[in-house]
Amino acid sequence: MGTATDELLEVLGDDIVTVGGISSRYHTDWTGVAPCSPVALVRPRTTEQVATALSICNVHRHPVVAQGGMTGLTGAAVPQPGDVALSLERLVGVEEIDPAAATMTVLAGTTLEAAQQAALDAGFELTYDLGARGSCTVGGNVATNAGGNRVIQYGMARDHVLGLEVVLADGTVVTSLNKLLKNNAGYDVKQLFIGSEGTLGVVTRVVLRLRPAPASRTTALLACPDYAAVLVVLDRFRRAAPNLTAFEVMWPSYYWMLAERRGGVTPPIDIGDGRGVLVELSGNDATADERLVEGLVTSAIDEAVVTDAFIARSQADTDAIWGMREAGPMDGIAGMCHFDIGLPTGSIDEFVAEARRRLREVWPDVVSFAFGHIGDSNLHFNATIDPVNEPSDPSIAHRMEEIVYGTVAEWGGSISAEHGIGTIKKPYLHHSRSEAELDVMRRIKAALDPHHILNPGKVL
Amino acid sequence: MGTATDELLEVLGDDIVTVGGISSRYHTDWTGVAPCSPVALVRPRTTEQVATALSICNVHRHPVVAQGGMTGLTGAAVPQPGDVALSLERLVGVEEIDPAAATMTVLAGTTLEAAQQAALDAGFELTYDLGARGSCTVGGNVATNAGGNRVIQYGMARDHVLGLEVVLADGTVVTSLNKLLKNNAGYDVKQLFIGSEGTLGVVTRVVLRLRPAPASRTTALLACPDYAAVLVVLDRFRRAAPNLTAFEVMWPSYYWMLAERRGGVTPPIDIGDGRGVLVELSGNDATADERLVEGLVTSAIDEAVVTDAFIARSQADTDAIWGMREAGPMDGIAGMCHFDIGLPTGSIDEFVAEARRRLREVWPDVVSFAFGHIGDSNLHFNATIDPVNEPSDPSIAHRMEEIVYGTVAEWGGSISAEHGIGTIKKPYLHHSRSEAELDVMRRIKAALDPHHILNPGKVL
């Protein structure tokens, strides 16, 4: 018997299997971390070929990393030395849109953007959305339980998945292409694979829930004097606007840094040392939604929980508001450590203050930026000790992680709100999960992948 | 070493453990199926006592059935001969409501109604709701992934669960009392226990997501000439009313039977041989919602997809409309077989016609009633061959199940939309789940409960 690579090539052929000269696209993800060429690249055109490839690797006890759009931020799809890479990029297409059920069935390698567009063309909306939409794939979104914008209204990728087709480590195809909103016939096994980062099975097809496309979006930017005021405003909007689709908060350092980096633009409103809040309503009656926002803002100003506000009246206004929130301008800042943290909504501001205090104790000149999907209990926190030059010492990032994740643990938070664990956050998983929880995860892993061929070294 | 019962009594004492003379309340559920006294009844006051009880039973390889409010409809909480019953009824209380996070932490034995009331008292709503609310428990709702009213807007019990505390078969307490909407730190292990009907672990605490309580409900009853018109109306309401919280459809036999059984009341509208549709919007502006419903109804009448309509203008009107939908009057009909079926929304009417045709081939005088949460792809279908006398032959129910569930399988449906599997639907699980899916369920069961002490004979 030859190696796994030999057998893959022999059984699947060189159209499907590439050995040697594998493009760097398959070496790392958007973090650029630890690039490494897989020993072979398998690009199946059918679920059956996925099953054949996994079955061969399982017999050879050969490790396999599944790959989608390679836009991950935790290294989960980055090959470890010796891995076979299994790219789903040829399993592409929207197979069905069922208007009565409001579902779409999509092959795993389809980009999120293509799936979103197909939904729109049919008069529906696929209601999860990420910045990486043009490159990330639906299969990858499911494997990592992607979050992104609009979670406050529609939930994570998990909340959009009605059915899955998954291939297990031994090549068994588990077809659960359920289109029903309600199905209590036995355990809901698809839940296991969602967010398991390719360690329990490989997703090949997905049934997604669709919603009617809204006719309008109403967007506003508000200045709150402090975080207590932010919480009051969140409560008011949650109660009055069941169609609230975004509630994004910016701390001053982030807000003013963005203004400066966007060519020194004057922001639409002055938040001073308060908090900037972006709100968005999605609906079918722009006039009614504008009136609702105006009413809420007026009474918030009367109560002094909002000090200034800008309500979009045009697409240009909307773009200006979202421009104040977009994270793109962070890209050019050197030595930035990115933290994607889940925290109890009520204590996020205290957490930011405490994390900053602890970092300053070690590095008095540390610069940090805080913003996030506060309505979803999700903070993005970024810090650097030298925003101009590339950091010379990788141990700084490690020490920063120790401090920040340690604080997260004390706050009862999660070290990953939406990005997953992969390799990058693995050393810190114990901060967010107890030994009993990790033990359950290990039992599940052993039950579904007894030879540990699926993405070994990731998550657990 | 004595028996499990001896050791339970010795370690936990007779305040917690009852042997002999166990009330019939613990013998069966709302189906009344196969009543059987457990050999011992354990009623712990703490999670630690639950853990002790399970640990003892696990060492003795003694089977345990967990019990909540005993309102189930599939026999999942009914003891099998020899079982120890573990009732969660003393683990009662709302431990915390966190207004900023919009969550509540509840002990498993708390009734749904008590939890709903506590949420309301704090200005929030617990947005799942069942007829059994006064007796069923939050732990039981989680263990069965309960559905009920308002799933179309807010989802099943699963969609309300943010965190769980669960005791495994070996007594390990897994505490995952997450309050975060987003938490991608490793596998989402709580999903496994939701809907597993006490076969994978015993739920002791639950963190539930809350939403702001709506200020108003707007209810209407519509007559559609046929099911195609129902689908058009569903699409119109879904698109125009993001706050649609109920969309319930009644077939004529059900509609007219209800009118007759409610003392021959004249229904608010005449649906003829069409379909009756109940719609409900929940919001904060009753006037705007009424105007929206009026507008939708007017244009639906213009398009001839609605032939008559009654919009509630008072609580009495609302009660009259919900009275036309409530299933209570079904109770007195003899020999009724109840089916809780998931079906693709678009083909539910064809399914009803075909199931009726197949039943009539065997029993020309069969009477059947169809209604359901159509917006959730959930049909309730009930049939009897003798609505006056109790059935003499239990094999009739069995033959009816064979016919109906066989048709469900051909239609790509689910034999259980919201009630679960228990013992009653277990023989038919293969109609809705493939061998590969069942194999994954068995692997999970073996991983978490290797000695099969948790509710053996149920689900799998």
Report a brief summary of the structure.
The structure is a homodimer of 460-residue chains. With 460 residues, chain A is of the alpha+beta class.
What does this structure look like?
Two copies of one chain form a homodimer. By secondary structure, the first copy, chain A, is an alpha+beta fold. Chain A is built from 13 helices and 18 strands. In chain A, the strands form four sheets. Chain A has a seven-stranded antiparallel β-sheet, sandwiched between helices. Chain A has a five-stranded antiparallel β-sheet with strand order 5-6-10-8-9. Chain A has a four-stranded mixed β-sheet with strand order 1-2-4-3. In chain A, strand 17 and strand 18 form a beta hairpin.
Summarize the helices and strands and which ones pair or pack.
2 copies of one chain form a homodimer.
Chain A: H1 4-12, E1 17-18, E2 40-42, H2 47-59, E3 64-67, E4 84-87, E5 94-98, E6 103-107, H3 112-121, E7 124-125, H4 138-144, H5 151-154, E8 161-167, E9 173-176, H6 190-193, E10 202-209, E11 211-212, E12 216-224, H7 227-240, E13 244-250, H8 252-261, E14 275-283, H9 286-302, E15 308-311, H10 315-323, E16 337-342, H11 348-362, E17 367-373, E18 378-384, H12 394-410, H13 435-448
Parallel strand pairs in A: 2-4, 3-4
Antiparallel strand pairs in A: 1-2, 5-6, 6-10, 7-11, 8-9, 8-10, 12-14, 12-15, 13-14, 13-17, 16-18, 17-18
Helix pairs in contact in A: 1-2, 7-9, 11-12
Search tags:
homodimer; 460 residues; alpha+beta; 7-stranded antiparallel beta sheet; 5-stranded antiparallel beta sheet; 13 helices; globular
